[in-house]
Write a structure and sequence with these properties.
Chain lengths: ~350, ~400
């Protein structure tokens, strides 16, 4: 069948493309240009991601598939970047990769792929799509638990999953690298990327303030009792659970209890700090919930994951009206962060997920 | 089968050119500036090419300066003339809005350095009317630059009257003839210009070599300084094999200019009529009469050109959305925008450009495949619009 592979220039999507081509599919490589890659008028060399496009093109040539760069700058800006900036300005911590998956890769790109006669869109995510006996599509975690990316894919709908393929999801990362080496893919030794693709040098705070200068502005750091214990220069620089960078002296807390960000109040430009136990939370609610399995209106025992590097914890989840959900954990969880995703699993099958309020 | 209808982007080398470049690469390795036998051989080959290209455009060999291609020629023309005229107080540059980026972005660069620039829009057919030039220029104007034939829509501009108007005000006149050379007669004297750019790879010659024709007596300064190559006009050791290839391509073009124009125009017309007849919601962009014989630019209503371009490539058919330099990004065509078209129409147009090796079989193939692809994309567009609303 004809399959469009979203090629980032990294080893995972390169191997995904190579595997599908090897299986005899009619594979079309596509790299998405998501933000302006042109050089400035006064200086050159400011952009590194153009190298990734070159790598994708070299891989496509090596495995002898056509390769196109599609410009999704406008869609990416509307669907992902605008949300990213708005979330930080609202005292929340966004998860742009999940938005990009459901609103760009498996939406805009999938539409374009259909125009090329493609039946499916494949990516290099560590996740699996399967079909159960009733014909329903299931999203499962990748077999390499340390690399699993199902968390970032929770918002795919049934119709999106029906056309999604994750060719590396059923093998460990090391096997993916070994395959790349064995097939002499030009990116076999390329390090994994860790950063948000559109943020240069991890400096998301400057990115947010460049895009929305209104977020810049100092305000008080207050403790749980409302006492001012310091000043900050913009709430977009903070995220719940953060400990470093508060710039307040140890005397503000007690010697034995370091202070953490426990909340952000954008209306008052306040950063609220407290001891670690103030970060503990047993319940949360989520909005814009996507149920891949049936919505558990009567409640369902699941494990729930509240950020990418969080071990899913036992919880009871209940579907509420208006695409919302309520989660009650068996044990208190640290740093439930508004704006991040909460994803529910039954073993390694994604039940659904939503955005933490 | 694969179909190549993107000759305005670049052309395959003529077999005679391949052979000439091969032999020159092997036998003419001497530095053309050297006094000895090896240098003389190289120099003679360059001058042979100089005569060939001069003959094609009715210039004198001494007026030919070899460059690295169309972009360098355009930069050389604009920057070289602008700098030469700077002491006279002429600080104003004029071009059409449908020029190649090599001209438009050089204008922007000069504007940043204090030059006043005027970019003139064209009429609905893609033609710059001479009256517009008359209104825009003055005795302050240093250079007027108007392309001979447009790369995206193929329209031929009224260079001779524009040049006459510009000369009345004492301006230097440049024309970018990259897309007209070897497609239609290019006669520098009849055009009445002072500077003319051309590029070998647009007429079955090698890439990386072109010409700036500089009318004898034109005030110009070099932009590449160094040795005394090209009589102090363009420094840098000559790319002998490429220049030799350009010369051979020029001779081939001169020998069959008329017959090829007739043959290619017939193919292009059959392609165009086939598409218009078999695909609903199509229209030709640009003046259907004043255009080079190999080019047609067609709008496909309710289709994104980028998607259609890729769908065609997956069927083995190579065309373009406009200038090759801007593909890979879905920017609206600046040419169609300057003609006053809607945003949609600036993003739904494909350029089909034919050439020496184009055949009837290729035309048939495109006319056969295209209706199905367009229909499919239109259905999907309709569905996704319906799904969003």
């Amino acid at each position: 069948m004809r399959i469009v592979v979203a090629m980032s220039g990294g080893v995972d999507s390169s191997v995904a493309a190579a595997l599908l081509a090897e299986q005899g599919h009619d594979v079309i490589g596509v790299s998405m240009q998501l933000y302006d890659q042109s050089e400035g008028q006064t200086s050159f060399g400011s952009c590194c991601s153009i190298d990734d496009l070159h790598d994708a093109r070299r891989v496509a040539a090596a495995i002898d598939i056509p390769h196109y760069i599609l410009n999704f700058e406008r869609q990416f800006d509307e669907q992902v970047v605008t949300n990213f900036v708005r979330e930080y300005a609202s005292g929340r911590t966004p998860l742009p990769c999940a938005r990009c998956n459901s609103d760009v890769k498996f939406a805009t790109l999938a539409e374009r792929a259909a125009g090329f006669g493609a039946d499916a869109v494949a990516t290099g995510h560590y996740a699996r799509v399967e079909r159960d006996a009733t014909g329903r599509y299931l999203l499962r975690r990748g077999v390499d638990v340390s690399k699993d990316q199902a968390y970032f894919l929770f918002s795919l709908t049934q119709s999106q999953l029906a056309r999604a393929m994750f060719p590396v999801g059923d093998r460990p990362k090391e096997a993916v690298r070994a395959y790349a080496r064995q097939h002499r893919l030009p990116v076999a030794e390329k390090p994994d990327s860790q950063e948000i693709c559109f943020i240069p040098d991890h400096d998301y705070a400057s990115f947010v303030s460049d895009r929305n200068p209104e977020v810049v502005g100092s305000g008080p750091i207050v403790d749980l009792d409302g006492r001012v214990v310091g000043r900050h220069d913009g709430i977009h620089r903070f995220t719940v659970g953060q400990r470093r960078g508060l710039g307040i002296s140890a005397s503000a807390g007690t010697a034995t209890a370091p202070l953490y960000v426990v909340g952000l109040k954008p209306a008052d430009r306040q950063v609220v700090v407290g001891p670690k136990r103030a970060l503990e939370q047993t319940t949360l609610t989520a909005s814009d919930v996507n149920w891949i399995l049936n919505p558990p209106t009567e409640g369902r025992s699941v494990t729930a994951q509240i950020r990418h590097r969080h071990r899913p914890a036992p919880a009871l989840v209940r579907a509420l009206s208006g695409n919302r959900a309520e989660v009650v954990f068996a044990e208190p969880q640290i740093a439930v962060t508004p704006g991040q995703a909460v994803v529910f699993y039954d073993d390694d099958v994604v039940v659904g997920g939503g955005w933490i309020d | 089968m694969r179909v190549y209808f993107d000759y305005n982007a670049t052309t395959p080398l003529a077999p005679e050119v391949i052979e000439a470049v091969r032999v020159a690469s092997r036998d003419l390795f001497g530095n053309a500036s050297s006094v000895h036998h090896f240098g003389q051989q190289a120099k003679a080959a360059i001058d042979e090419a100089r005569s060939a290209i001069a003959a094609l455009i009715n210039g004198d060999p001494s007026e030919i300066v070899f460059t690295s291609g169309g972009t360098e020629s355009d930069n050389f023309a604009l920057r070289g003339a602008a700098e030469a005229l700077e002491p006279t107080g002429r600080r104003h540059l004029v071009a059409s809005a449908i020029e190649h980026e090599a001209v438009l972005n050089t204008f922007k660069a000069l504007a940043r350095r204090g030059w006043k620039t005027t970019v003139l829009s064209v009429d609905h057919a893609g033609i710059l009317t001479p009256d517009r030039v008359r209104e825009a220029i003055s005795t302050e104007t240093a250079v007027v630059s108007v392309m001979h034939a447009n790369n995206e829509i193929g329209t031929i501009q009224p260079i001779a009257p524009i040049a006459a108007i510009a000369h009345e005000q004492g301006a230097i006149v440049h024309t970018d003839a990259v897309q007209s050379t070897a497609k239609i007669p290019v006669d520098v004297r009849a055009l009445g210009v002072d500077l003319l750019s051309l590029s070998a790879h647009k007429f079955n010659g090698p890439k990386g070599v072109g010409v700036l024709w500089i009318k004898r007596g034109t005030r110009m300064l070099p932009i590449l300084t160094g040795g005394k190559h090209e009589r102090n006009r363009r420094a840098g050791t000559e790319n002998v094999p490429a220049i030799v290839g350009l010369g051979v391509a020029a001779r081939l073009a001169a020998a069959k200019l008329e017959s090829e124009a007739t043959r290619v125009a017939a193919l292009r017309d059959r392609l165009e009529q086939g598409i218009l007849a078999r695909v609903p919601g199509t229209a030709v962009n640009g003046d259907p009469h004043n255009r080079v014989p190999n080019t047609t630019n067609i709008s496909f209503d309710r289709v994104e050109a980028e998607s259609l371009l890729i769908a065609l490539d997956l069927e083995g058919i190579a065309v373009s959305t406009g200038s090759a330099c801007s593909s890979g990004t879905l920017e609206p065509s600046h040419v169609l925008r300057a003609m006053g078209f809607s945003t949609h129409r600036t993003q739904n147009s494909l350029r089909f450009s034919l050439g020496q090796f184009s055949t009837d079989v290729e035309v048939d193939r495109v006319v056969e495949v295209l209706p199905r692809l367009v229909e499919k994309l239109r259905v999907l567009t309709k569905n996704s619009v319906a799904a969003r609303s």
